Amino acid sequence: MLARLRPHLLLFLALTVAYHANLRPIDSGDTLPGSLLPFAILLDGAVTLDRFEPWLRVHVWYAPSVLQAAHRHYFSIYPIGGPLLVSPLYLPLAFFVRNWDTGSLVMLARVAGKFAATTVAALSAVWLLLLLQRITSAPWAWTLTLVYALATETWSISSQALWQHGPGELAVIGCLYGMQRWWDDRARNGWLWLCGACAAAALVIRPTNLILLLAVLAALLFAKAGIAQYTRLLPLPLAAGLLLASYNWYVFDRLSGSYMVPRIEGSTLPALAGLFFSPGRGFLIYTPVALFALFAFFPVARRKPNPLLVMATVFIALEWLVTSRWVLWWGGYCWGPRLLTELAPPLVVSMAMGVPAMENPALRAWPRRAFAIFALYSVLIQAIGVFFYPKGHWDAGPPSVDNAPSRLWDWRDNPIARTVRGGFYWEPYAIAGAAITGGLKAARARMQELNVDPYQQAQPIGDRGLR
């Protein structure tokens, strides 16, 4: 057992080190409530932020934008599923910080949030590896796992702060894994319980993940599942939906919570084009290796029908469509197409299913060579986001991208080029060096000297609707 687990443990540890290599979180005001909620749950036994609100109101200018007052309490304006999921990771800290002042807790929350996000992202990669090993050969399974972990927004977004995307990716992978296990042995319907549980978790983590349940239902329809299969899958997502709606009604007086209703009027084509090709947020600009998911649809790759490919395809299509209907489809201030982060797992699974086509002797070696080039380029783009962003401050303009979205199409002044010109984000290493040589007092002095404030964000709040 230990011999079988060792490679997966080493992968988890290696990715944890890689994700922490920049020595800082890459967050925004959007992630502040999520980083504080685990402390509120463990210290106060509640999902309210009453403990933190007085301090935040005085010290953090954007606090009113991320807190919701209701019934004489203060709640996060964002969904709380992700923070609930990672709360157990905060348990070791809860015993030592009970008497800490609020300001110190807020500062610690920024650091703890990064550790929690890193843990979830690395764990999702390990789970994806277990899934890919059931689909393709071991070398390709490992290669594609590294593509997921380092060549997609998993690295630059999910592993860097407690956005909804990291826990969301973990839930999506669990759902895909449960579907594949059920398809491998349809006599064991218990795997559909896992699939349903992960779909339920994805829904409370990020309500737009309702489309994941639709994708699962499409896969079961394709597999000609019976009533027994649906009855095992649906109870947990339905219960989660009811709990989420009740919470939203209690806190926000509406079922959708703080989420905005997607726009109905107008064309989706400009947003779709931007999500695909714009230098500001284009998925194929920041993660071009995703193109190799198309190999799953080559005739030589389709050895037999598989509901997992149906599930992945439907989820990808619906995610792109829903995101394109949002007013701020670019996701506010962020690196790359943040709102499409949850597409990484189904795209990588599709790549795994397309491996027979990429290895087709008739095509010689060009697909594998192109794959290597695109993958290395994607890793480089994500590394720029991890080690350079937000240097250059492209999002802020002038003018702000939220006020002038046409800047997303500016090829001369684009986020990648300006961020690189802004230089390496070296300040965390200087602060860490001061802490090693002079202790926490020296680190605080170095932070003040460099004008680094872990909780006072200079950036405006991002898109409240999709976060």
Strand content: under 5%
DSSP, total strands: 2
User: Number of DSSP helices?
Assistant: 22
Rounded to the nearest angstrom, the distance between the terminal CA atoms is 40 Å
Model regions low in confidence, pLDDT < 50 over at least 5 residues:
457-465
Report Rg. 22 Å
Determine the mean pLDDT.
92
Q: Write down the secondary-structure element order.
A: HHHHEEHHHHHHHHHHHHHHHHHH
Q: Shape from CA axes?
A: globular
How would you write the strand order of the largest sheet? 1-2
What's this entry about, in short?
The chain is mostly helical.
Describe what you observe in this structure:
It is a single chain. This protein is mostly helical and about 475 residues long. The protein is built from 22 helices and two strands. The chain has a domain of about 270 residues. Strand 1 and strand 2 form a beta hairpin. Helix 11 crosses helix 13. It is globular. It starts with a helix and ends in an 18-residue tail after the last helix. The relative contact order is 0.12.
